[in-house]
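Hi team,

As requested, here is the filled-out complex form for the NDP run. I kept the field names the same as last time so the parser does not choke. Let me know if anything looks off before we queue the next batch.

— J.
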Amino acid sequence: MKDLHIISGQTVALPKTAYQARHFINGVAQDSVDGRKSDRISPSHGVVVSQAALGSEVEAEAAITAARAAFDDGRWSRLSGKARATVLNKVADLIEVNVEKLALIETLESGKPISQARGECGGAADLWRYAASLARTSHGDSHNTLGADILAVVLKEPIGVVSIITPWNFPFWILSQKLPFALAAGCTCVVKPSEVTPSTTAMLAEMLVEAGLPAGVCNIVLGYGSPVGSLMTAHADVDMVTFTGSTAVGKLITKRAGDTLKKVALELGGKNPQVIFPNCDLEGAADAVTFGIYFNVGQCCNSSSRIIVHEDIADAFVTRVVELSRQVAFGNPLHPDTQVGAIVTPEHATKIDSYVRAAVAAGAKVCIGGHSLTIPGLGDQFYQPTVMRGVTPDMVIAREEVFGPVLVVLTFGTLEEAIQLTNDATYGLSAGIWCDDISTCLEFSRRAQAGTVWTNTWMDGFPEVAFGGVKQSGQGREIGAYGFDEFLEVKSLVMRVGSTRAPWVKKA
Ligand code: NDP
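And here is what came back:
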């Protein structure tokens, strides 16, 4: 630990009282009918930072009923795109006004650094604005070439009531990858955040009211996956489920939603590789690898938790990544210089460590880290930056999502081997290549089994560019025009406009 860059002080004070997060159903903020609540203890400061209403099927049922009624009476779905865009743009403005409040509670509940939380919460406003632009520009198709007497029009309509289930790693950002797009399409929603990070979702409710969103259009239920999330995925009045989280729960949701044939969009895990060729900006690649594995303490579906590095440069490259790992500022999330904060829960910290222990037992070597990290005054819910070599492609650590700051190194000799290793995974979320030769980059990009391929960069994203995975990383796309289309149904109108239709029944 001595040779790591640790930040123990803080410049932002802890709030004096815990934030009270409540459900938001049919336009009304409310506690649970049975009065139950759950406490959220900050991963880095060990104090209760929020108390959230703990919902049951009663609240989930009420929220679904409200969303169904709001959809069916057209109070939102039949508004003009302009009217919907006006509300979404106002929400974006209010997010910007409230960035500090949102970022502080996001930091305290998740353990992520305050500077990162500010970036995510403030940046989410841009997702709302982009979705607003889609509300105004969305249109269908017309077919004017079907013959003199026929005109066909293809309409896009909102899919209906959407259940939105989000995880704890990017609570406000992931919510904003889904909710404004569903609302822009004219859908009504029921939202359930993770019970460990409920507060920024609950805070959004006030902004929705202030922006003029009609009651019942967006409902928020706080509580556990079972019973709240389960009902949201099985209920006959829900038309679509969009979920971000673990592959295991994604599969469960798909099965439950199958009984009523709901549409399901899933954004799940990854074991995302960056492939490093000798002829590239090696310093830039080493920095991107360091960023890719430690950003959000590796608790990131897009974490680049595998590198596939050319055998000629592997030793020097790993040495550089290890050097950079020592320079990354781990520590107190409430200090603006901190780059990497705490692990979300003690259970998750234990899970990360057990992956590392199992890899060591299987023969992997730890180049740096490999243990939890205790920071004076902040406790031990931190994990050291960890790089592992001596890893073979069949080891669990090379195949499963650790969701922590643990990088594994594999090596290759030829482009063919690099592509084979990249695709030797059950996941297919993202992949990256570092190489100066554009033909090699294109060959790799076209053959990599991944929803996103980055070339000479990592994790650059834009509201305009679709995001999602193939294989067991998910189905459907988020953000961009493709993400917006997920919330739309297509209806074809075929109209005879000239002469009357030729009779089918032969007249006697
Ligand atoms: P989960 O997949 O369990 O949780 C994600 C969301 O789904 C939470 O809101 C959760 O509620 C909810 N949920 C849980 N069970 C159900 C259910 N039966 N029906 C409907 N909703 C449900 O992730 P975890 O938080 O448990 O994390 C476990 C692992 O998942 C991590 O270690 C990581 O590997 C992966 N993960 C991947 C993410 C990604 O971005 N792809 C994000 C988060 C985790 P609640 O937790 O409140 O009960």
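Two things worth flagging: The CA atoms of residues 102 and 201 lie 9 Å apart. Residues 165-169, 192, 194-195, 224-226, 229-230, 233, 244-246, 249, 252-253, 267-269, 301, 348, 401, 403 surround NDP (CB under 6 Å).

Thanks,
J.
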